[in-house]
């Protein structure tokens, strides 16, 4: 971290320091647990959709953050799932969640939402 402070050696958020701390003693998380990539493609800024099947965690990894896109009035379809948790503009969890995910997937997410 001292080297990073002196000169930038990585640009990937918190992942590289965690990998150093754990010295490679990490394991992959099944994609059904962690729906990553909702921040879109870092190069093109495109939106991504959910992978098929149940989802436990919605992860807006990447540069596109739902709060920024919602504020800019240029959201990706799944960004609306973030709205209920926005401390400045949020509302209660609504039927919009059902519309975006479908009733079968929402049942799997209900304990997390």
Write up this protein:
The protein has 113 residues and is mainly alpha-helical. Helices cover 28% and strands 4% of the residues. The protein contains five helices and two strands. The protein has helices at 2-6, 15-21, 66-71, 95-101, 103-109; strands at residues 34-35, 57-58. Strands 1-2 form a two-stranded parallel ribbon. α4 (95-101) packs across α5 (103-109). It is globular and about 40 Å long.
Q: In brief, what are we looking at here?
A:
With 113 residues, this protein is mainly alpha-helical. The chain has helices at 2-6, 15-21, 66-71, 95-101, 103-109; strands spanning 34-35, 57-58.
Based on DSSP secondary structure assignment, what is the total number of beta strands? Answer: 2
Q: What is the percentage of strand-forming residues?
A: under 5%
Distance between the termini: 35 Å
The largest sheet has its strands arranged as 1-2
Shape: globular
Structural class: mainly alpha
Low-confidence stretches: 103-113
Number of helices: 5
On the 0 to 100 scale, the average pLDDT is 74
Radius of gyration: 16 Å
Q: SSE order in H/E notation? A: HHEEHHH
The largest sheet is: 2 strands, parallel
Specify the helix fraction band.
25-40%
Task: Explain the layout of strands and helices.
Layout: H1 2-6, H2 15-21, E1 34-35, E2 57-58, H3 66-71, H4 95-101, H5 103-109
Parallel strand pairs: 1-2
Helix pairs in contact: 4-5
Features:
113 residues; mainly alpha; two-stranded parallel ribbon; disordered C terminus; signal-anchor; transmembrane
């Amino acid at each position: 971290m001292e080297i990073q402070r002196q000169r930038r050696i990585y640009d990937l958020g918190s992942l590289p320091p965690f990998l150093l701390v754990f010295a490679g003693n990490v394991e992959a998380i099944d994609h059904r647990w962690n729906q990553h990539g909702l921040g879109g493609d870092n190069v093109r800024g495109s939106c991504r959709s959910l992978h098929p099947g149940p989802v436990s965690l919605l992860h807006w990894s990447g540069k596109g953050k739902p709060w920024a896109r919602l504020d800019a009035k240029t959201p990706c379809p799944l960004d609306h799932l973030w709205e209920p948790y926005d401390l400045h503009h949020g509302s209660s969890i609504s039927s919009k969640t059902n519309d975006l995910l479908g009733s079968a997937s929402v049942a799997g997410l209900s304990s997390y939402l």
